[in-house]
Amino acid sequence: MGVVFVGILLLYFFNNPSNSRYFPQCPFLTATGYYCTGCGSQRALHDLLHLDIIGVAKHNLLFFPAFLLIAYHWVRSYAPAKGKESLPDLIYHPKTPMVLFIIITLFTIFRNINLYPFTLLAPE
């Protein structure tokens, strides 16, 4: 699994999804003309691998919290047991799914509103 993960990271490091025809287009955007929650994530990953934080924010602002949430889950689940007790279990809290659903829904709605400041949420 680790080899596949590293392979994907290398693919995104050496190939810019903005300039390559090998990366899939968003089916939701293609079908509806509206941005989904994940639109711009491929370009954001490429920018993150090149340490272009501004580029990540321009392509998908939700990429940062999602990345941090995955990292938190990894540390909480797979890190050595020392100090793990001090980390609160936020991911498996009963209210977490509803909070995430509301954030994702609002983000998707707001990034499709064609008025400033909501246009800043649309991927460039």
Order of helices and strands: HHHHHH
% residues in beta strands:
under 5%
Shape: globular
Instruction: Indicate the low-confidence ranges by residue numbers.
Output: none
Return Rg in Å. 17 Å
Mean pLDDT across every amino acid position: 88
Q: Total strand count, please?
A: 0
Largest sheet: none
- N-C termini distance: 32 Å
- Counting H and I runs of at least 4 residues, what is the number of helices? 6
* Class derived from helix and strand content: mainly alpha
Oligomer, anyone?
A: single chain
Please give the share of residues in helix.
40-55%
Question: What is the secondary structure topology, with strand pairs?
Answer:
Blueprint: H1 2-14, H2 27-32, H3 41-49, H4 53-59, H5 63-78, H6 96-110
Describe what this molecule looks like in 3D.
This protein is mainly alpha-helical. The protein is built from six helices and no strands. Helix 3 (41-49) packs antiparallel against helix 4. The protein starts with a helix and ends in a 14-residue tail after the last helix.
Question: Which tags fit this structure?
Answer:
single chain; about 120 residues; 6 helices; about 55% helix; membrane; transmembrane helix
Quick structural summary:
With 124 residues, the protein is mostly helical. It has helices spanning 2-14, 27-32, 41-49, 53-59, 63-78, 96-110. The radius of gyration is 17 Å and the shape is globular.
